[in-house]
C-alpha cells in the first residue's frame, strides 16, 4: 500500500507540473499578444461580445483546458508627419514655385494683384450703462432765452460767432426770430436752432443726437451732432460729428448746447451724404457699425471725391488717423464712415438684404 500510494502521488505531481508548464506557456503567449497589439499601426481595435477560447491538448490525452482571452483596445498616437499626410493639400501645395508664379498657357508677364485685406466689421454695444448710450432728449425744462444775453449764433453756413440778442421778432407765420449783433461786427436775424448758449452745458442735458456747437482755437465755432457720450472706451470724451463730416473728440468745456434744436437735429445738416450718414448712425446707436483696423494696415478711402490708397497710422477708439499715399494728406476718419471703401460696400449689402426682406 505504501508503494502504491507513493506511485499515485508521483503521478499526480507529474501531471500538476505539466499543467503548470502549460499555464506558463499560455501566459507568455498572452504577453506576446499584448505586445503585438501595442506595436500595431492601427489606432484602435473594436471589442466584441464573443469571448475567444483556445483549447490546449495535454500530452497524456486528458481533457482539454479552455483558456479565456479578453480583447484589448490600445490607442497609439500617430507621429506628426503621419497626421500631416492625412490632411487635404492646400491650393499652394498643388503647384511648385515655378508653376505658381507663372502660367505656360500665357506669354504675358504675370503681375500680382494689389488688394486691400477686408477688415472685420463689428456691431457691438458701445457702452454698458444706460446713461452712456442714451439718445433720447431728457425731459428737462428749457432754459430761458431773452434779450441782452450772450449767445453763439450762425453768421453763415459752417461759421458761428459770439454775439448778443438785441431783439426777438415774431414773424407773420408765428415763427420766432432772434436779432443778433455779433462781437466781430455784423448782425443777423436767425432762428432758435441757429443760436447756442454761451455757457457750458450740464452733463444731464447731453445725449447722443444732441445739436451742439464746438469751440476751437482762436474763438472759432462749428456746429455738429453729439455722437458719443463719455465712456471708458473713448477715454471719457465726447465725440462730435461736425457738419462737414469731420469727427472730433472733445471735453465738456468745449461744448455749447443749441438753444432751440429742431425735432430731428439731422434736418439741420445741409450736406445730403453726411445727413444720410448721421440718420443711419443714430438709428443704429448704440450698435454702430465699425470697421476693425490696426496701425500699419492699408485701406482705400474717399478723398476729394475719389477712392485713394492710404495707411492707418493710429487708432483712437472710434477714429483712425489715415495718411494718403499720393499727397501725404493726413486726417482722422470715423471707423464707420461712408468714405471707407469696405464700409461703403458693407452698407450697400445691408441695404440689399433689407430690400429683399421687405419684398418677401
For the structure shown, list the relevant keywords.
SH3 type barrels; five-stranded antiparallel sheet; 6 helices; alpha+beta; 360 residues
What does this structure look like?
The protein is built from 6 helices and 18 strands. Among the domains are: 1-44 and 65-90, no CATH class; 289-360, Roll (SH3 type barrels), CATH 2.30.30. The N and C termini lie far apart (110 Å). It has a 5-stranded antiparallel β-sheet, with no helix packed on it. The protein has a 5-stranded antiparallel β-sheet with strand order 12-11-10-9-13, covered by helices on one side. A hairpin with a 4-residue loop joins strand 11 and strand 12 (247-250). 24% of the residues lie in helices and 29% in strands. The chain is elongated, with a radius of gyration of 42 Å. By secondary structure, it is an alpha+beta fold.
Structure summary:
By secondary structure, the chain is α+β, with helices and mostly antiparallel strands. The chain has helices spanning 2-38, 80-86, 97-101, 130-133, 272-284, 341-359, and strands at residues 53-56, 65-68, 120-122, 150-156, 159-170, 176-182, 187-191, 195-197, 211-216, 220-228, 238-242, 247-250, 255-257, 290-292, 298-303, 306-316, 319-324, 330-334. It is built from six helices and 18 strands.
Globally, the shape reads elongated
CATH topology assignment of the domain at 289-360: SH3 type barrels
Rg (CA only): 42 Å
Major sheet characteristics = 5 strands, antiparallel
Helix content: 10-25%
Query: How many strand segments?
Result: 18
How many helical stretches?
6
- Low-confidence segments, ≥5 residues, pLDDT <50? 20-66, 84-114
Q: Spell out the helices and strands N to C.
A: HEEHHEHEEEEEEEEEEHEEEEEH
Report the average pLDDT across residues.
Answer: 77
Give me the CATH architecture of the domain at 289-360, please.
Roll
By CATH reckoning, the class of the domain at 289-360 would read Mainly Beta
Span of the ends, CA to CA: 110 Å
Proportion of residues in extended strands:
25-35%
Major beta sheet, strand line-up:
7-6-5-4-8
Class of secondary structure makeup: alpha+beta
Amino acid at each position: 500500500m505504501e508503494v502504491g500510494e507513493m506511485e499515485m502521488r508521483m503521478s499526480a505531481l507529474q501531471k500538476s507540473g505539466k499543467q503548470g508548464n502549460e499555464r506558463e506557456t499560455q501566459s507568455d503567449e498572452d504577453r506576446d499578444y499584448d505586445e503585438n497589439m501595442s506595436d500595431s499601426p492601427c489606432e484602435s481595435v473594436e471589442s466584441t461580445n464573443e469571448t475567444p477560447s483556445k483549447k490546449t491538448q495535454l500530452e497524456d490525452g486528458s481533457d482539454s483546458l479552455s483558456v479565456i482571452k479578453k480583447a484589448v483596445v490600445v490607442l497609439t498616437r500617430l507621429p506628426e508627419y503621419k497626421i500631416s499626410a492625412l490632411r487635404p493639400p492646400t491650393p499652394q501645395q498643388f503647384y511648385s514655385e515655378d508653376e505658381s508664379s507663372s502660367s505656360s498657357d500665357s506669354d504675358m508677364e504675370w503681375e500680382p494683384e494689389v488688394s486691400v485685406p477686408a477688415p472685420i466689421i463689428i456691431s457691438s454695444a458701445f457702452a454698458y450703462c444706460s446713461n452712456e448710450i442714451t439718445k433720447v432728449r431728457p425731459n428737462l425744462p428749457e432754459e430761458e432765452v431773452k434779450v441782452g444775453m450772450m449767445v453763439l449764433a450762425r453768421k453763415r453756413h459752417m461759421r458761428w460767432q459770439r454775439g448778443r440778442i438785441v431783439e426777438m421778432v415774431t414773424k407773420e407765420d408765428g415763427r420766432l426770430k432772434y436779432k443778433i449783433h455779433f462781437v466781430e461786427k455784423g448782425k443777423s436775424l436767425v432762428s432758435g436752432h441757429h443760436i447756442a448758449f454761451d455757457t457750458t452745458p450740464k452733463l444731464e442735458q447731453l445725449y447722443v443726437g444732441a445739436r451742439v456747437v464746438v469751440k476751437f482755437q482762436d474763438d472759432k465755432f462749428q456746429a455738429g451732432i453729439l455722437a458719443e457720450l463719455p465712456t471708458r472706451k473713448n477715454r471719457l470724451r465726447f465725440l462730435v460729428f461736425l457738419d462737414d463730416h469731420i469727427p472730433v473728440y472733445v471735453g465738456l468745456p468745449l461744448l455749447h448746447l443749441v438753444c432751440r434744436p429742431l425735432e430731428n437735429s439731422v434736418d439741420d445738416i445741409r450736406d445730403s451724404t453726411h445727413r444720410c450718414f448721421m440718420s443711419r448712425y443714430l438709428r443704429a446707436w448704440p450698435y454702430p457699425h465699425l470697421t476693425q483696423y490696426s496701425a500699419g494696415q492699408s485701406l482705400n478711402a474717399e478723398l476729394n471725391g475719389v477712392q485713394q490708397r492710404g495707411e492707418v497710422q493710429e487708432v483712437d477708439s472710434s477714429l483712425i488717423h489715415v495718411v494718403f499715399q499720393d499727397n501725404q494728406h493726413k486726417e482722422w476718419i470715423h471707423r464707420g464712415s461712408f468714405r471707407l471703401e469696405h464700409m461703403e460696400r458693407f452698407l450697400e449689402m445691408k441695404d440689399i438684404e433689407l430690400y429683399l426682406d421687405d419684398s418677401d
